[in-house]
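User: New here, any thoughts?
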Amino acid sequence: MKSFEVNFDGLVGPTHNYGGLSYGNVASQSNSQQGSNPREAARQGLAKMKALADMGFQQGVLAPQERPDVAALRRLGFSGSDAEVIQRAAKEAMPLLVASCSASSMWVANAATVSPSADTADGRVHFTAANLNCKYHRSIEHPTTSRVLQAMFADQQRFAHHAALPAVAQFGDEGAANHTRFCRAYGEPGVEFFVFGRSAFDTRYPAPQKYPARQTLEASQAVARLHGLTDDGVVYAQQNPAVIDQGVFHNDVIAVGNGEVLFYHEDAFLETERVLAELKDKLARRGGNFKAVCVPRAQVSVEDAVRSYLFNSQLLSRDDGSMLLIVPEECRNNERVWTYLNGLTSQGGTIAEVRVFDLKQSMQNGGGPACLRLRVALNETELAAVNPGVIMTASLYDTLTQWVDRHYRDRLSESDLADPQLLVECRTALDELTRILKLGSVYPFQLNP
C-alpha cells in the first residue's frame, strides 16, 4: 500500500497583523506595529500550496480561526454586545484586543503533534492539539484547532484525537514545530524525534537566560504516551539554550528533518553526537539509514539562520529519492546563506534542489514555509478517509483565491482592529469557508449563534 506525507498548510486569516506578540521571535518583534496586507498574505500562502500540489506533492489546507476572539475578551471581563466588547477592549486594554485578533493560527506547525499509524499502539493516526500556553494569543487557539482537525480527520477507526495537555508551564507544548519523524518510507515504522527547550522538574537540564524555552520535556513525553509510542521508536533531545537566546524559539528554526535526513545547524542541540548516534541506531533497527547534514557555524551563523529562516524550510522527498528544499526569499537575499545553499546542491548529495518562495507577509510576522504546514503521514486508505474538501486542487485554489479577494482587506493597522466591522467581515468569510471546505460548524459563532 502506498503512503504519503501530506502537508496541510494554514490559510492566513482575515485579521493578519503585526502585533509583535511573540517575545523571543525576532522577526515578530522587529516588525511590530507595521501595516500588514492580509489579502497578499493569504494569496502568498495559497500560491505555495498550489505550486507544491502542481509538483505532485499531496497538499491540503487548514482553516484559520475566528478573530477577534470576543469570547476570550468576555472571559477577561469585557461585556456588552460584540461591538461594545471590542470598543471597550480597544479603549481600556488595547494589548488584549491585539492579542485576541492575532492570526497566528496560520502557523499550523504549532497546531498539533501527529503520529502516523505505523508508529502507534492501536494502528491509528494520532493528533494531540498543542496548548501553546507560553503565549496568551496562541493559548486560545486549541479548542477551535481540535474541532477543525476532527472535521478534517473524522473517521474514528483511523484517526484518534487528544485534547491539549494541561495549560500550565510544566506541560508547555508547541506541537510539531518541535517534532520530526524519521523513516525509511512513510508507511513503515519510524523514529519520532522530540526536541525540548527545558525540563519542568529536572534541574539537570540547563535553561536559556534571555528568552523562554517553550517546549518542555514533560510535554513531549506525555504526547508520546498518549500516542502509544514505544521507547525504541522515540528520541528526545534538548535544544541548545544559547540558540534559544538568539531567537530560535522552536526547533524548526534551527533544524528540519524528513525521511532519513536531518538538516541541522551545528549549534542546534546539546549532546549532538549522542543524539545523532541514537537516531542512527534506532532508525537502523527499522531498516533505515539515517543521514545528518550539518550546516557549520563558520559558513552560516545562528544569526543568519534566524534572519533568513534557512531551517524553517520544507524538506520534501521526490520520487527519484532526492530531496527538494523549499525556502523563503529571505534565504536568497542573505549572501552567506545563498552561497551555502548553492554549494550544497552542487555537491550532488541528498538535497538536490532549492526552490524559493515569496512569503514576505508571513516572514515579517516570524514564520516561514515550515511554520505554515502540518505534516501528516497517511497510507492510501487513510488519505481516502480525509475530508476531501480540504485537499488542494486547481479548482479549490481558484475558489479560495476568489474567496480571499472578496473578503480580505489589503491593509490592516492596529487601529483597524478596534473596528467592530472587522469581526463581521471575519465571520462572514469563515462561514462561507466552512461550506467551501465541507467542515460543518467548527467556529464559536456557528456553535453559539
About this structure: Residues 3-67+102-447 form a domain with the L-arginine/glycine Amidinotransferase; Chain A fold (CATH 3.75.10.20). The chain has one domain: 3-67+102-447.
